[in-house]
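Hi, here's the filled form for the chain we discussed.

Project: internal
Contact: R.S.
Residues: 119
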Amino acid sequence: QVQLVESGGGLVQAGGSLRLSCAASGSIFSIYAMGWYRQAPGKQRELVAVVTSGGTTNYADSVKGRFTISRDNAKNTVYLQMNSLKPEDTAVYYCKAWDPSKGEVMIYWGKGTLVTVSS
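And the returned structure, exactly as it came back:
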């Protein structure tokens, strides 16, 4: 069982920055693909960014050029640096892990951290 704990959310003005962190349990973090998703009120959860075990990244079009996902395998942590924040970035941000170590890919979610961007 992998446990994911997000932190770093909060209230920020439009144009500001935040950095989210997601700390993962387990000794094989380096093989997990990791991602950030978000869910705004009344909307479906959507992918924000993903980083593979090899470091390849992918982003939603809405955040390209503003958000950066990164990982520190020594700290079992994935980050989401969010710059030039907009009110439409307001959402609960969730961390997701894909663990391929058990023959089938196991998926784990954190409980989320709230990001509120004021105009």
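Let me know if anything looks off before we file it.
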